[in-house]
């Protein structure tokens, strides 16, 4: 892996962590900086609805009680195409939200675009990981 590719991958990983930390802290400024103006997220709202940047940020800022929040990314794959990077990883996230256990493992696909020297995410899709009945261990990512 070239130095430049390695640096880009590390930068995107860092931004992905900043994004989740900002959501946990209800940090509008950081969310606004990381999410592109035309950001869309799918796989998160009921009935397959898409959420745009404004809706997503407002939802992150809702005053809910969050306890024992923790997350971990695993199995990163970052592929760069010019000023665009497609990122796949596993996100294991758990919390108690308003007294109810929430979370699980999801396969994440993000698309990041470099605007000048800054990477911003333009879209995220998440899918719950469905485990084989024969193999309750790690989900396979190919």
Question: Can I get a quick summary?
Answer:
The chain has one domain (3-128): Nuclear Transport Factor 2, Chain: A. The protein contains three helices and six strands.
In words, what does this structure look like?
- The chain is of the alpha+beta class.
- It has a single domain, classed as Nuclear Transport Factor 2, Chain: A, CATH 3.10.450.
- 27% of the residues lie in helices and 47% in strands.
- A six-stranded mixed beta sheet has the order 2-1-6-5-4-3.
Structural class: alpha+beta
Q: Roughly how many Å is the radius of gyration? A: 16 Å
How are the strands of the biggest sheet laid out side by side?
2-1-6-5-4-3
- Quote the average pLDDT: 90
Q: Total number of β-strand segments?
A: 6
- H/E element sequence: HHEEHEEEE
- Annotated CATH architecture: Roll
CATH fold field value:
Nuclear Transport Factor 2, Chain: A
Q: Biggest sheet, open or closed, and with what strands and sense?
A: 6 strands, mixed
- The backbone outline, from C-alpha atoms, is globular
Which key terms come to mind for this protein?
142 residues, alpha+beta, Nuclear Transport Factor 2, Chain: A, 6-stranded mixed sheet, 6 strands, globular
């Amino acid at each position: 892996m070239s130095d430049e590719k390695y640096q880009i991958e590390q930068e995107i990983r860092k931004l992905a962590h900043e994004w989740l930390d900002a959501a946990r802290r209800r940090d509008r400024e950081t969310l606004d900086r990381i999410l592109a103006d035309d950001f869309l997220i799918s796989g998160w709202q009921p009935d397959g609805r898409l959420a745009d940047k404004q809706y997503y940020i407002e939802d992150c800022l809702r005053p809910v009680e969050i306890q024992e929040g923790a997350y971990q990314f695993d199995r990163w794959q970052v592929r760069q195409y010019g000023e665009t990077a497609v990122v796949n990883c596993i996100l294991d996230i758990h919390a108690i939200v308003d007294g109810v256990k929430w979370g699980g493992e999801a396969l994440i696909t993000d698309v990041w675009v470099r605007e000048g020297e800054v990477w911003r995410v333009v879209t995220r899709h998440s899918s719950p990981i469905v485990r084989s009945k024969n193999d309750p261990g790690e989900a396979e990512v190919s």
